[in-house]
Design a protein that fits this description.
InterPro entries: CBASS_pafABC_assoc_protein, WCX_dom, WYL_dom. This protein is α+β, with helices and mostly antiparallel strands. It has helices at 2-20, 28-34, 44-60, 83-86, 95-108, 111-126, 152-164, 238-246, 265-270, 296-302, 314-332, and strands at 26-27, 65-69, 77-81, 92-93, 167-172, 181-193, 196-203, 208-213, 222-224, 254-260, 272-279, 282-290, 308-312. It contains eleven helices and 13 strands.
């Protein structure tokens, strides 16, 4: 029983690696021939049943599995994972959660899993699958938590202090070339946003709430005072505090976008539904989305192809069409 479960987990992991690490869509036949775990299917029917179950399981797990034409010349249906939707949103870590992530990271860096990933990608390449070098799946082991490189020791001191309710003192600089100044802070928590890590707390020197990027905190972090003296205020939203400091403000300009039923999950997360609507004979709904920084929303919408259509404003619609035509030209060439 244990060997069957292990085989299934390995097969699903291999499938996720394949669908995340390739350009475009991969056909079911290519998956059968190149992804470890499917080649032993005794018949086409057995493979079809297995693959259908695996697809449903990935979708049940919330993995955004998409279907589409392999190319403009080949109408065969293929599969891929939308990497933008697959990526986790920024998260706020409690000390216990951060410790769990650190343990998981060490596990991922283990030789066994690194070797498994290397083997999966090499098999894909050997089978002729076009592996995307920007897919985020490397043939070398990752080092440290994402966005934390060089600040591991700082986090290692901050987390126990937050957990113990103890103030900390550290050198900090406002910018990469600014001089260090000593700050004494009552730490409330650590937040990740836009790929960076931030400490949020009450700055005793400024007598105000402050946010500190971990990469700008010197290594000489030390607890000060007694444990239990620091208490995070009730109802404080650490993420909102960081967002006010580092996030780009909303433009206030709303775009209306039609999205197909059950598709474009990442767009749905950042938009507000206006109501159901049919477009081109397909069921869907219209959502309103803040246009935000120039280019970012157009790139996001274009990534969903025919599953997301800009209704207004016209400038955004044209920008998305330009991106889609450019992508179609690359496929044709």
């Amino acid at each position: 029983m244990l060997s069957v479960a292990t085989s299934k987990v390995e097969r699903l992991m291999n499938l996720v690696i394949a669908l995340l690490s390739t350009h475009g869509y991969i056909t079911a036949e290519r998956i059968r021939n190149s992804v470890a775990g499917y080649g032993d299917s005794p018949s086409d029917e057995a493979f079809s049943r297995m693959f259908e179950r695996d697809k449903n399981e990935l979708r049940d797990l919330g993995i955004p599995l998409e279907t589409g034409r392999v190319s403009s010349f080949d109408p065969t249906e293929g599969y891929r994972i939308n990497r933008d939707s697959y990526a986790l949103p920024d998260i706020e870590l409690t000390p216990d959660e951060a410790a769990a992530v650190a343990v998981a990271t060490k596990l991922w860096e283990s030789p066994e899993l690194v070797t498994a990933t290397q083997g999966a990608l090499l098999k894909l390449r050997a089978a002729g699958v076009d592996v995307d070098p920007d897919a985020g799946l490397s043939l070398s082991a990752p080092s440290g938590l994402p966005g934390l490189r060089g600040s591991e020791d700082v986090l290692g001191v901050l987390l126990p202090a937050i957990n113990a309710g103890q103030a900390v003192q550290f050198p900090h600089r406002a910018g990469p070339t600014s001089p260090f100044t000593t700050r004494t802070v009552e730490p409330w928590g650590v937040v990740t946003m836009n790929g960076r890590w931030y400490l949020v707390g009450h700055d005793r020197d400024r007598d105000d709430t402050r946010t500190f990027r971990l990469s700008r905190i010197g290594a000489e972090v030390r607890p000060v005072g007694a444990a239990g003296e620091v208490h995070r205020p009730e109802g404080v939203d650490l993420r909102a505090i960081v967002a006010r400091v580092v996030s780009e403000p909303a433009t206030g300009v709303q775009a209306k976008v039609w999205v197909a039923a059950g598709r474009a999950t990442s767009l749905r997360r950042i938009g507000t539904s206006v109501g159901p609507a049919r477009l081109g004979g397909r069921d869907g709904e219209i959502i309103e989305v803040d246009t935000g920084p120039r280019g970012s929303l157009a790139r996001e919408i274009a990534g969903h192809g025919a599953d997301a259509v800009v209704l207004e404003p016209e400038a955004l619609r044209q920008e998305v069409l330009t991106r889609l035509r450019a992508a179609a030209g690359e496929v044709v060439s």
